[in-house]
Every structure is written in C-alpha cells, then in structure tokens.
C-alpha cells in the first residue's frame, strides 16, 4: 500500500533532523495569556501576527503591541495557541472544542512541516487529538504557559517551562524555537535523544525565544504538569484561607503564626487575600 504524501513528510523528518529558520509566527488567542506572548515574540524579532474572535482583543493587540492582524492561517512557520479551554461558566471544567476547531482550520490552511505549540491548559490526550486533526503533517508540541500578571518581570513569559512533543522531531523543533539551546536549561529531563546534543552549535545563528525549557519524553507528562500545578496552587491557597479563618475564630494572630511557620525550610504558608 502506498503511504500518503503528508505522512511520508513527517516520517522522513522523524528520521533525520535539521534546524529550521523560523520567522513568521501566528498567536491565536490574544487575551490575558496570548497578548503577553505576542508582545514577547515580537520583541524577540519574529514577524508576529495575531488572531482572535474578539474584535476588541485584536484591536488592543494592534494598538498596544503593534501585532499584525492575520488575514488567514496560511504560510506561517509557527502557530502558538493561547485560546480558552474551559467552560465560560466553570473554569474547572475543560472545554477544548474551540482549540480543536482552530487545529482543524490550521490543517486546511497551513504548510507542511510547520510547528503548532499549544500553550493553553489542556486535558491529557488533547495534543494527540490535535495532531490527528492536522493529518500528521505538522509538528505539535505542548508548552504549558507560566505567567503571573502581578510579577510579570520575574514570572512573565520568559521563565523556565516544560515542553513535550507528539514525536521526537516535534520536540526537537519546539526546543529549537523556544530555547535555542541543546536541551533546555542545560537539562534533557526524561528525554534520551542524541540529536539534542548537536542542537546548540547548529542553532547558534537561528532566532529563538530564549526561554529556558525542560523537555519531557512524553507529551502527556507536559499536559498533566499544568493541571497538577494548578491543583497544587489551589490547595495551598485553600489551606492558607482555612488557617486564616481558624485564627480569626480563635483570636490568634495569623501574620505572626505564618511568620513562625515559614521559618521552617520546607514550609511556605501563603498570605490569604480577598477573592
């Protein structure tokens, strides 16, 4: 049986890797996450375009960051997906229909071999669903976002991140684009691939985002990393709030108790805040 051309394309790239010169980037979703990403990508010298179903969000990106409005989804080297992936009425319930719709559109308009990076928080298995929609002819990575608006300088777009790829060739291209170094932050995580060792020298003249990355061998690890990060954070917040309420009910000075507890090296009680 003859193998379809689009499947041949990706399989051949799996077998031999050479760095690609990325230049034209499309950020899909220009909200709280996507706009800072678009600004950062543009600052790194990439030809940066944006797309959002909200006219207001698109206009804001053009005005604030000088992002160009994408007329279509064709001829881009990179697609960064920053769309909402939860139900509007319940942020704890995943809803990935919009993301998969975007993947379907990319599959119809994108050139072979482009890189699709999903930065949105997604359930396990979503990246592979997107890869199937893309007919296996584009590379897919998941690089879950880490960004804190209140401390953007220290914890903005450019902080240590996790990245996984559907295939090894996807992961190599993802590390090249995000990190530009051989294995992200000098580490390979669970990745055992000799081709990473040659990336530093070969990529020295190529543009990248300069973000330190921690590659993982399975993309499912990257997917659940963000979900667990969020769950861990919510548990920390909930514990601090319950402790604060206990102190109020029992006439205990919470700030003093918190300071005392946090003198232990492996304890970090958060400061409860309204909301």
List the helices and strands and how they pair.
Elements: H1 5-15, E1 24-28, H2 34-43, E2 47-51, H3 55-65, E3 68-69, E4 78-81, E5 86-87, E6 90-94, H4 97-109, E7 115-118, H5 126-133, E8 139-142, H6 152-155, E9 161-165, H7 168-178, H8 199-202, E10 213-215, H9 219-249, H10 254-261
Helix pairs in contact: 4-5
List keywords for this structure.
two-stranded antiparallel ribbon, 275 residues, Rossmann fold, 10 helices, alpha/beta
What's the quick description here?
The protein is α/β, with parallel strands linked by helices and 275 residues long. It is 40% helix and 14% strand.
The whole-number mean of residue pLDDT values reads 87
Give the helix proportion (percent range).
40-55%
CATH superfamily of the largest domain: NAD(P)-binding Rossmann-like Domain
Lateral arrangement of strands in the main beta sheet: 3-2-1-4-7-8-9-10
Described by its quaternary structure, the protein is: single chain
Low-confidence stretches: 11-15, 182-187
Number of helices: 10
SSE order, one letter for each helix or strand = HEHEHEEEEHEHEHEHHEHH
Q: Using DSSP, what is the number of strands?
A: 10
Radius of gyration: 21 Å
The total domain count is: 2
* CATH architecture heading of the largest domain: 3-Layer(aba) Sandwich
Tertiary shape? elongated
Largest sheet: 8 strands, mixed
CATH topology of the largest domain: Rossmann fold
CATH class of the largest domain: Alpha Beta
């Amino acid at each position: 049986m003859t193998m379809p051309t689009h499947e041949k394309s990706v399989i051949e790239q799996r077998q031999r890797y050479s760095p690609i010169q990325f230049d034209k980037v499309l950020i899909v979703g220009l909200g709280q996450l996507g706009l800072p990403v678009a600004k950062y990508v543009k600052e790194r010298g990439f030809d940066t375009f944006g797309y959002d179903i909200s006219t207001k969000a698109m206009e804001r990106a053009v005005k604030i960051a000088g992002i160009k409005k994408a007329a279509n989804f064709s001829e881009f080297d990179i697609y960064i997906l920053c769309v909402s992936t939860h139900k509007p009425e319940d942020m704890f319930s995943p809803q990935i229909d919009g993301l998969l719709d975007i993947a379907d559109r990319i599959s119809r308009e994108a050139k072979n071999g482009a890189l699709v990076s999903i930065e949105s928080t997604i359930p396990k298995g979503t990246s592979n669903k997107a890869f199937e929609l893309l007919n296996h002819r584009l590379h897919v990575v998941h690089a879950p976002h880490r960004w804190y608006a209140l401390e953007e300088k220290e914890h903005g777009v450019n902080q240590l991140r996790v990245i996984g790829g559907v295939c090894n060739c996807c992961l190599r291209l993802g590390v090249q684009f995000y990190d530009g170094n051989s294995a992200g932050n000098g580490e390979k995580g669970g990745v055992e691939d000799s081709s990473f060792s040659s990336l530093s020298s070969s990529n020295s003249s190529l543009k990248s985002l300069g973000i330190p990355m921690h590659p993982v061998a399975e993309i499912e690890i990257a997917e659940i990393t963000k979900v667990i990060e969020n769950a861990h954070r919510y548990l920390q917040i909930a514990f601090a709030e319950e402790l604060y309420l206990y102190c109020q009910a029992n006439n205990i000075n919470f700030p003093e108790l918190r300071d005392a507890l946090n003198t232990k090296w492996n304890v970090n009680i958060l400061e409860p805040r309204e909301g």
